[in-house]
Amino acid sequence: MSRSRFACLRLSATVLSFCIFLAPSARPQVMDGRLEVRVIDPSGQGVPAALELVSRSPQFVAGAVADAEGRATLHRIPPGTYLLTARHEGFEIAERRIALQSAVPRVVEIALSVATVREEVTVRAPAPLFEPYRPSQGTRSGRDDLEQALGTTLGRSTVDMVTAMPGWLLEANAVLHPRGSEYDTQYVIDGMPLYDNRSIAFAPAFENSEFEAVTVLTAGIPAEYGRRLGGVIALDTRRSAISGHRTSLDVQAGSYATRIGAFSHQYASGGTELTIGIQGGGTDRYLDPPSLENFTNRGSSGGGNARFARDLRSRHRLTGYARTNRTNFLVPNDLVQQEAGQRQDRRSSETAGQVHYQGTLSRRTLISVRGMLRDLTSELWSNELSTPVYVLQDRGFSQGVVMADVTFEAERHTLKIGGDIRSSGLRERFLMAEPDELPDFDLDFRDRQRSTEASFYAYDQLRAGNFAASIGFRFDEYRLLISDRAFSPRLAASYFVPPAGLQLYASYDRIFQPPPTENLLLSSAATGFGLDAVEEALAVPANKGHFIEIGMRKPIGDAMRIDAKHYWRQFRNYIDDDVFLNTGLSFPITFDSAAIEGTEVRIEAHRWKGISAVASYSNMLGRARSPVTGGLFVEGGEAEELRDVVEEFPISQDQRNTVATTVRFQIHPRVWASFGIRYGSGLPVELEDDDDDDDDDDHGDDDHGDDDDDDDDDDDHGHDDDHGEAQPVPAAILRKVNFARSRVRPNLSLDFSVGSRVWEEGSKSATLQFDLRNATNRLNVINFSGLFSGTALAPGRQATVQLRVRF
Prior knowledge:
Number of strands: 44
Distance between the termini: 59 Å
Number of helices: 8
């Protein structure tokens, strides 16, 4: 990276630091808040009114009915600005704006006045569109969005919600890349961070049916979040909306023999809540295949979850959450492997338990303690016809975590101090052999290691007039194959211009990201295997960097909001991955540095004359710089190719333009329709023999090459697979690659949906929805074979029917 860019980064950080003397970072959107309401009449007596709490930033709706004394408690409220409405027969409707700064309980009293006879119509103010005094705000999809999302294949519903938000790119096999990062996605389940690779090939997937909301954050990240900071995905499990029993049943069936079902039952009474759920499904298209024929691509999953919460006494609450899931699937074959009769099976399973205690020490002080035990296993096994090699793998880890924090809230300050410690026992077993030499193995590897990670953080949020700011820091220590530690400041600031209704904001995050653990033990020990193709290994170092973002938010009228931002990311020891020999198993490597820069725009329109819409646009430029500073050097591999070479090249997630938009029409109170567009300008391609490609007329850059003409039967084109055999590549796939620009050609999907609440009786309902993805059945190539990735094809046309029953 140039000295001028370094100087720009330092200058921006200095300016923010100077502003902080007035010093909230982005408040995490975890649903831990508690709102205690008392509704009274003009004489001060309690009224059993119906309450509704609504926000459009974040998108959230909650309801409750006050008891005979007019008291009601709403649990699990995310930080935000809300409109609280109280209704009771014989009284005027009362409204009050409420701002929840943190998880510290808030007590509110709302007074009702006796109704009078009126002839005029009262126009009531809607819930606020955004929070003008919060520097960094996550992008959130609430329960309605999750339930009405288009149907998709197994394991992709939650991922699909995330990729509709700006800055998130989906690569093969539902791998998420936030703003150009490879491994750096952090999931947070009810406040508990998970740092391992959660793509569907590595771990059991999350599905929308389990969650109340999905919130993502890519800048202005609170100091309590660390270790994986490319992007944070906060998943909040379903909350109990009403007292008594409530049952949900979701069923989906569609293309590729996809069938998915989820059942949950909730019970709430007073301060006690209980939720149990089961889910499962299957599909004939689990991963993104390398061939048009979609060979050996079946997958199935099943699991369950339970959540229990109880008020121990006034303002003290204990919550337990457990889940277990298992996924079985086949690895898709290419043409050569299919003809050889290869079959490779994979299985991933996970069992986890969380406990959370939340207690109020005083009116403005809250303590929170969380713990988690988790075990994850990933297995792979082959038959004797596998080519080029027979492999067997059994890897995973067991993990224990303890987290604690204290929040102090004043009128203009919110201070949070906390830390965590986690211990993980990693295990890896790997066997490899030539199929014709079985049962003798060329490699039999087994190892166990224990990692220890600890952190401490603190941050303060405050507001002074129209200025809001935050200062925070985090200290991390990491020990596994290497030992490292880092101090990371986090800064954010914003200024609200009331006459223009405009918020200007900026943030700076220093990051520290330890090496990914997937296949780390195997690749680190490979130099001792005595394999000719393994040349050398360097310890994978921690990734460190600087994130800067500037932007603006502004409501347009009373129903639309625009958010535009520009960001810069600079990395040292940029994380990527390479493939171990011919096995298809990836392991982490690091490049010397990387610089990523981009612009994102998101426009949201909320229910204007029955129309709502969301449009997101991202433009990104990412460049990495060799040499390789960590990882395994395998003959013919990516790390070996760039071992002693100093050059600059596009990162593998360098898609310049990405668009996602959805428009929804409320045709009737019980009928709606929507259409959407997903567009990507294409990922980079690096071939081993670029000179030959440039000379091949059939690989030209003609625009008509996007047409899928079946008249071309140039199936004699080929490329070398991982084991050196020339494989034929269908002309339909070749036409989707722009060899002159070394990029996959643009992908496009037109999607449609129509739904109706076919039955409704009180809180009971049945909803039927029909969805059509990629309606034109366009062939979209995600990756094309090269140094960075193998060929992967996106799904064709998908038709889905969904049934949702609530009673």
